[in-house]
Please model this.
Amino acid sequence: MIKDEIYKKMVKYQYISFDMYDTLVKRDLKDPKDIFKLIEKAALKKYKNIVQGYSQLRVETEEKIRKSKKTEVTLTEIYNELAKLYTPSIADELMHLELEYEYNLTVMNPWIKSIYKYCCENGKQIIIITDIYLPEKFIKRVLKKVGIDSWRCLFVSSTSGKTKNDGSLYDLALKELQINGCEILHIGDNKHSDYDMAHDRGIEAIHIEKDRFQLIYNTYMHSGSEMSVLCNHTIAFQNNHMKEEWSRPYKLGYESFGPLLFGFSKWLKENVVKEKIDKIFFLSRDGKIMKRAFDIYDSDHETDSNYFLASRRALQVPKLVEEKNIKDILGFIYFPSELTIESLLRKLGIDDDNIVDSVCKKIEKRKDTIIAKKDLDGILGNKIWNEAVYYIKKNAENERKSFIGYLNQEQFSGRAAIVDIGWFGNMQSNIESIIKQNQIPANVYGYYVALAPDGKHQKHLNMKGYLYDIHHNQKSHKKEILINQVFETIFMADHGSAKRYIEQEGKYSVELLEPDLNDTESINWLNEYQKGALAFVEDYCENGISYDLPIEFITNCAFKQFLRPCLQDAKKWGSFKFRDGEISFIAYAHNLKYYLKNPHQFLKDYKVALWRIGFLKQVFKVNLPYDKIVSLQKHI
Model:
């Protein structure tokens, strides 16, 4: 039933009664019985094998007592029975754990919130009628916690021994309220106890849907394993906290990016404590959103976290002081398969047009002459190096001095952690090379979202990846490379890349390039997406129970939105414009009709698409395994 119909029905009733669980409140669980598996997991840490199998025993004990009596079971009765299997003290601790978990995992049902608010604002007499084995005193605590405090009467089956299931709890409520059934409207999720039995007492009832699933990509796993319980808890948590009025990018960030930021922050905190890190430096630009998430997780600010402006270009150029020939630089500077002589010189730090023109004149080549990467160590490449090396090293030395000044200004010393999105760890290698040569007293540890399994630096530098690295989860790398450009985009900061370090009157700063993202609509979408992700981190930190979310689940959350995108999202992310010399798109696509007339253009657009999965989804629209198609094409 839609809300407008409920409001219409509520108008003529002064008394509105609500069921509690799955109506007024929700548990952050797929199945209420999953709570016992979470309790067992926690109890095993203290009692080891003594409580092995608790979750099953807890269910069986409650069922056994229900069969032996006609009235409602109570929590005390259940644990008195369990005390015979364990000990009174263990049973008592397990009972308190159950109450703690119930309290922390229960939230206001977001869908019913506006209906409850309507009742409060219109002077309705709010009654709560619930079949539950939990103590009434505890139920009141839960109601207060979730903000439900304007009720008149509470009828709990564990207190009275009567239930809605057989109708007797309705009889008790009508008697104590001194009203007839026709004077009250009841709202609940259970067809039998909240609708049929209410009608039997002459009470008008509304049967609401138990599960209203709001997530876009995440779906519940089949219950059973410990991992499925943890994953399903997180999905239920997201579903119960997501608000109808949120924008689509905000919801997507909450659902898909938030778990990654939370999991990474937790993992990072554990590692910096273990390694006794003095300071964390989050490298720009990807590190900005990571620092914001970490600072939410580390709310007590026990760890000194800093935002450190850096980029491949800003760290590569100072390192050129050490290099003797162009062959030496091929190992640490990325070059595309082809580039112009001007682009080559820019990458080597020469921005002065006069110097560029002078070098080109001496080698008798135009600055727009194309040179292949494979030829950089050939005759032309070495000719360019020899003519430009003086200017390259002079500029590199200036930038190196400024970089060292920036390091000292930022107090980069001691046991220092650098944090970045990752892939190969080249920036860490460059930093370590420079601090070693300049005898800066720092031991560097690198922590990354992920590191490419074939990255050479992992073998001799202190670095590790969260989602995957050379030691674990290498299959995830094959998925990530299919979505690399769009995945990196979700980490993007609101400023341009660091170009170079500069010194002015004894103070050091960083010259920034223009921001890459070029259109306002995309910028607003990304801002909303990142806000949603940070909102998840904040909400999950307030959860009261800290879980190690499985890496497989977090990887699936982050990757699925790009490996199997819906058409709406493929269009939106694909339309992101970047400024990199010229305007480029993540995945710009015409419609299928256009490509049927222009098949060569299809091949051309497919090849230049930075996110080919998104490109194919936009063209063909239907649900196909585009990730597998692109992966297969790469191997043909």
Notes: The chain is about 50% helix and 15% strand. Residues 379-409 form the longest helix (31 residues).
